[in-house]
Amino acid sequence: MNIRIVLSLLVLPMAALAQPADSPRAEHNPATNRYAPLQGFFKMPAGRAMGASSAVTGDSKGNIWVVDRCAANTCIGSNLAPVMEFDRNGNFIKAFGAGLLQFPHGLTIDKQDHLWIADGKPTDGKGVGGHAVFEFDSSGKLLRTLGKPGEPGGGPDRFTDPNAVLVAPDGSLFVAEGHTSDFKGHPRIIKFDKNGKFIKAWGAPGSGPGQFGIPHCLAMDSKGRLYVGDRDNNRIQVFTQDGKFLGQFTQFGRPSGIVIDRNDKLYVTDSESRAKDGYGHHPGWKRGVRIGSVKDGVVTDFIPDTWPDPENSSTSGGEGIWADGKGAVYSAQVGQKEVVKYERN
Questions:
Q1: What pLDDT, on the 0 to 100 scale, is given for residue 11?
Q2: How far is CA 93 from each of CA 57, 200, 275, rounded to the nearest angstrom?
Q3: Domains present along the chain, CATH in parentheses
């Protein structure tokens, strides 16, 4: 049986999740963009520049949290505090985490306003940490560590290149790991209970249902379905919380970051698509943020990346994304080393 037919049969029960990329309702780069950037929104403290970031989100008080890579693209050897809190107007409040993080990658905040940060592998081979997930309270106190910092591995108590972490409403924890391209790594999703006890893991290198290239980001909708941004496969896969494959989205581009707001609106940032052969090859798709609903899968808005030459850059535009559900979208950018706020017109 043809592989395309097999995949279509697998996703028929959730047709809205399986809208093919070539559907007329799924134009690659929609012309509609109702969002405008608010330049200079985040006011950094004196003497501090924003570094590369793939992590931005908000808390229950309306404050905004950004984790950068210590004014560079790594925190190794830096004494800067990478976890930064801003008020709703972009004014700097405080920072913490100096010396604890090597390559901060993913960030989420739970209903207690605890920050969960996935720390990837050291980028220069000299770091002694990374490969772990940390839980902090909003004052900066370290509450819990999952994994063994500086000790990559598999199994129930080790991570290798964790990319993202998500906390479900019942407190269950999900971690996406594996940041090696060309299907050479060991990508998987790991589930823990609210106490950090290992429950299960799923995934393997590949392009079939439940397989991954790079599971780069996580989100959950109002029905409790888990969305995994499978970046190297240019798709978002959707699962039950027990790992059952439900369907996929391909019409939102090559996902580096995803978030779903309280209205089940899906925001996906594509920081890598390019026509050039090799890494990021995804001809016909431009980099930027695509916005639509998980209910029908239709992309309604596209915020284009402003990088002048994406064909010759491995990344530009947002890798991390957050939406406040009130019309604002925040894009955390590695290449541009900034976090941009977009407001809906």
A1: 41
A2: 15, 38, 41
A3: 3-344 (2.120.10.30)
Angle, alpha carbons 329-123-137 (nearest 5°): 50
What is the mean pLDDT for each group of 10 consecutive residues in the chain (345 residues)?
A: 34 44 66 95 97 98 98 95 98 97 97 97 74 98 96 93 97 97 93 98 97 98 98 97 96 97 96 95 96 93 95 96 96 97 96
How confident is the model at residue 18, as a pLDDT?
47
